[in-house]
Amino acid sequence: MVRPTRFFVISLCVVIFCLSLAGNASAAVELYNGTITTGDGYQINNFVIDATDAFPSAESASFYVYNNGNEVDDFLINEGDSYEFDFEDDGTIEVTLISVSSGTLPVVRVSIVLSNYLLSDVYESGVIDGGHKYAVFSGTPELKITKTVDKSDISVGDLIRVTVTAENIGDDKATEVIFQEPQQAKFLLYESFVSQTGQTSVDVGELKTVSVYQLKATEAGTYSLSPTTASFSNTAGLDFPQVSSNSPVVIVEAGEDLVNANIEFTTTLDKYTVSRNDDIRGTIKIKNTGDTSATGVTVNIQVPEGLEFNGGSGIETISGVPTIYLESFGVQQEKEFSFTLKAAEVGTYTISTENSYLFNNGVDAQLQQVSSDSVTSKILVAKGKYDYLFEQPIYVYLIPLVIIGAVAGWIFHRHKQYKF
User: Fold this and answer.
1) Are residues 276 and 343 in the same domain?
2) TM spans, by residue (predicted)?
3) Using one digit for the tens of pLDDT, what is the confidence trace for 298-346?
4) 74, 99, 134 — which closes off a domain?
């Protein structure tokens, strides 16, 4: 008699074995099965396979391989034979010559198979007329961020005008550009004229004005303004390292005694790479490093579609926007607010906050209002560990079930025979 526990273990092993076979089958993908005229090529990302010569009578053809326009390999194969070469990362490409036919220009029929490489990372593929000489390759955008001030010697209470520009001196368009303008210690944001929020792009050779604003000096000293930073990608979606602007030096001489509330807002996440349906835990830290208290401290958390807000401590959802509100906030006071997000959809996201507060500077009659924005680093949401199960065709699951049913029926039949 077969014990139920043993039967369950055997069935589970059969299912796991069949699913592992189905998962491994997707390790190699045929990108192309078709014809290429001699002189043309086939492009995969920055690689191009040129069909250089074909010999119908000898049933063979020769090929050259280029990476970013530079020759890296060449081979001659006969019909039915294959040649494999290294691709990006640990991937490989196998070219199989199916047939060679004559004509005005000889034509080869090939099969091109990509192995050990994520299909989602293939951003360019297809036949290129004229071969590698006419291929468009993924380039490198290069952002040069410049921060300037209209004057560098001022007194406490004076205003300076800050201008930030970004120029793309690279050879590819900068996409998904996110600029981050930090708060300046010992200065108040007095007025903003131009402000770049959200993602933008910078074409090759373009000079873009990122922000123009006025700062009010609140304390004597010599200060280097914090640099503006930017994260960006190229047209192929490849991410590049963050770049920073210069840091202009401003000398502030003693003037009227001003006081100010300097509220620092910091948002951190416990992880920036997650699987779909995972939770992300965030913390917003608010600290007053100024010398007077603030009122009406407000933080609006902008949660993009694809992420879901699952609540937090001291955070109230107002008109669909998670909001932190503090009626008053004292000198050197510090508070932390935690929240949870759910990664609902695959994609790349950022969490931004809109921050504001009021304070009395001890000189002006009206309250001073300070507003700022902050953006987290990119959050990458990948497919879940078991997402591929729902992407498989139904026969992948039916076959194991049929096998299990047959095994179970045979065991039951044999059990009845031995019983009697």
Assistant:
1) yes
2) 394-412
3) 999 999 999 999 999 999 999 999 999 999 999 999 999 999 999 999 9
4) 134
